[in-house]
């Protein structure tokens, strides 16, 4: 059981992969609904206008953008890629950096799968001494 402090209210809670306690999650969901509803009625509103009209802090609206819950119409210097700094519309990275990140992950997975398959002994014969010797040679 992992106990953590809520990033918003600092209360202790049982961590379940979300950095906020259940009551703050509910509050944030209500704030999101306010922002979403306001944006349906005013699609061209800026972050500042949305914040003033809904009472939701700009920081929280930016967090909704980073989470991918909201999207800007055009890339903005307010929201930039965490890897290259290029303006983006939603999320944490631009499409190019996401593609690079994804390729790196796939390459790492393929390499680790290859290493595991190389360590498996020949299924037709099991000689523990040969297996240990081969394993040491690879290291």
Which secondary structure elements does this structure contain, and how are they paired or packed?
Blueprint lengths: L2 E3 L6 E3 L7 H20 L5 H8 L3 H10 L8 E5 L6 E2 L6 H25 L8 H11 L1
Antiparallel strand pairs: 1-2, 3-4
Helix pairs in contact: 1-2
What features would you describe in this structure?
By secondary structure, this protein is mainly alpha-helical. Helices cover 53% and strands 9% of the residues. It is built from 5 helices and 4 strands; from the N terminus they run ββαααββαα. The protein has helices at residues 22-41, 47-54, 58-67, 95-119, 128-138, and strands at 3-5, 12-14, 76-80, 87-88. The strands form 2 sheets. The chain has a two-stranded antiparallel ribbon. A two-stranded antiparallel sheet has the order 3-4. Strand 3 (76-80) and strand 4 (87-88) form a beta hairpin. Helix 1 (22-41) packs across helix 2. It is elongated, with a radius of gyration of 24 Å. The chain starts with a strand and ends with a helix. The model has no long low-confidence stretch (mean pLDDT 88).
Query: What's the pLDDT, averaged over the residues?
Result: 88
Overall SS class = mainly alpha
Largest sheet composition: 2 strands, antiparallel
Parts with pLDDT < 50 across at least 5 consecutive residues: none
Order of helices and strands: EEHHHEEHH
């Amino acid at each position: 059981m992992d106990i953590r402090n809520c990033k918003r209210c600092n209360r202790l809670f049982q961590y379940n992969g979300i950095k906020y306690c259940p009551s703050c999650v509910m509050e944030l969901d209500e704030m999101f609904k306010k922002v979403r509803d306001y944006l349906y009625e005013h699609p061209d509103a800026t972050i500042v206008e949305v914040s003033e009209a809904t009472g939701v802090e700009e920081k929280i609206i930016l967090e909704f953008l980073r989470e991918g819950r909201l999207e800007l119409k055009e890339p903005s210097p307010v929201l930039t890629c965490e890897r290259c700094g290029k303006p983006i519309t939603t999320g944490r990275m631009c499409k190019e950096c996401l593609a690079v990140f994804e390729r790196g992950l796939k390459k790492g997975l393929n390499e680790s799968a290859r290493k595991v398959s190389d360590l498996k002994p020949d299924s037709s014969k099991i000689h523990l001494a040969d297996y240990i010797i081969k394993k040491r040679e690879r290291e």
